[in-house]
Design goal:
Dimeric_a/b-barrel; Alpha-Beta Plaits; YCII-related domain-containing protein; Sec-metab_biosynth-assoc; about 110 residues
Length: about 110
């Protein structure tokens, strides 16, 4: 049985994700409907959300190694946007979850 993990993956300093963001976003619905990703979104350096810091996930995996392999498949990893050497991953117990619909995902 997989464990749910809270995962933070930072962008490399100076990385510009804008060119690859449409491909990154297009891949999300499949990972959600497959049950791997429970929640996902960008993290920012500022409350105005003008400067990306990286990405946050709640995802299902058996190990930290599985998490890294999952992240490596993303366009942000393949294009050198994410710093996979600094991934934070902790098992998490969710006490409450409030849904926010994503276009293209029917759960």
């Amino acid at each position: 049985m997989s464990t749910e993990w809270n995962v933070i993956v930072y962008d490399k300093p100076g990385a510009d994700r804008s060119k690859h963001r449409p491909s990154h976003l297009a891949a999300i619905p499949e990972t959600v409907t497959s049950g791997i990703v429970k929640s996902v979104g960008a993290i920012y350096h500022d409350v105005e959300k003008t400067k990306f810091a990286g990405s946050a996930y709640h995802l299902m995996a058996d190990s930290r190694e599985d998490i890294i392999e999952f992240l490596k498949k993303d366009i942000f990893a393949k294009e050198g946007i994410w710093d996979l050497d600094t991934v934070l991953a902790y098992p998490i117990g969710i006490a409450c979850r409030v849904a926010k619909p994503m276009p293209g995902v029917n759960l």
